[in-house]
Structures are given as C-alpha cells and as structure tokens.
User: Which sequence fits this backbone?
C-alpha cells in the first residue's frame, strides 16, 4: 500500500467509473509503453498490477489488458473480471476462458502462465485475499447481478 492507495480506493468506488475504463486503460498503456512496463497508473496508487496478454478467441491476435492483481501462493497471481462492478463481463475474461495460456508482465518481468477459473472454497479464499488488497471488490460484487469471475494465474 502506498500513500495514494486510499485516494485510489475512493476513486475506484465511484459508480460511473466503468464508463471511464477505456480511457484509463488507454492512458495506462501509454505510461507502460513509455516506461517499458516499469511504471503503471496502479503503481502510482501503490497497488499491485500486471499486464495480461491473452490470445483473442475470435481474432487469434494478442490482446493486452492492465489489471489489478494480488500476488498469491506458489508464485501465482489472482485477477478478477470485475469491470468496476459494471453489468458486462470484461472481454479479456472470455478470451482467457477460450485460451488459458497467457503472458504476464509484472514489475517489468514477463512470464508464461496458465489461467484457471476458481470455484467454491478455493474462490472464497482467493476472494478474501483480493478484498484485503482492494476492498472495492465487495462494492463491485454488490453493483452487479453477475458473479465476478476470479482467475489464478500459475507459472507454466
């Protein structure tokens, strides 16, 4: 957690944030591109994050998305398809489900990972770990009728 984390949590709780997500992602990709992936918007906020690259399920092209993440057991990461609690699932979720072999860039280091959708008790434990890092996940869950999918990204 950084000095700006409470500000980020406050901003992340605003109900109209899903409408700004495309602009936020665009700016974050510019920042990451300009710094070789060494700096992200979430870094400034003191939050763990990664760049997830997955093969598009229809196009077959690589698609990259900056995501808040939670470093987890056994050199894994947790990510959630929350979309700030918006009604629609993020596109990257369907791509990961279709092609679970992904590339992750975390703190400038790139690794190959296998994504696995978590269910039941395993999801519940992971969700608690995610709430400890980003309490707004609870708010996002309340905002939407869909079940927010949680993925564990394990080394291949």
Assistant:
């Amino acid at each position: 957690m950084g000095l700006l984390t409470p500000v980020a949590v406050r901003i992340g709780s605003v109900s109209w944030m899903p409408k700004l997500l495309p602009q936020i992602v665009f700016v974050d990709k510019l920042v990451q591109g300009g710094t070789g992936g060494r700096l992200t918007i979430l870094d400034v906020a003191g939050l763990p994050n990664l760049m997830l690259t997955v093969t598009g399920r229809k196009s077959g092209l690589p698609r990259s998305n900056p995501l808040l993440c939670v470093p987890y057991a056994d050199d894994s990461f947790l990510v959630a398809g929350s979309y700030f609690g918006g009604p629609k699932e993020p596109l990257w979720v369907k791509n990961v489900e279709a092609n679970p072999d992904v590339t992750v860039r975390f703190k400038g280091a790139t690794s190959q990972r296998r994504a696995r959708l978590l269910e039941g008790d395993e999801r519940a434990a992971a969700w608690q770990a995610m709430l400890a890092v980003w309490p707004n996940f609870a708010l996002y869950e309340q905002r939407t009728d869909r079940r927010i999918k949680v993925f564990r990204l394990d080394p291949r």
Helices lie at 5-12, 17-34, 41-44, 91-98, 120-133, 136-143. The chain is about 40% helix and 30% strand. The two ends are 29 Å apart (CA to CA).
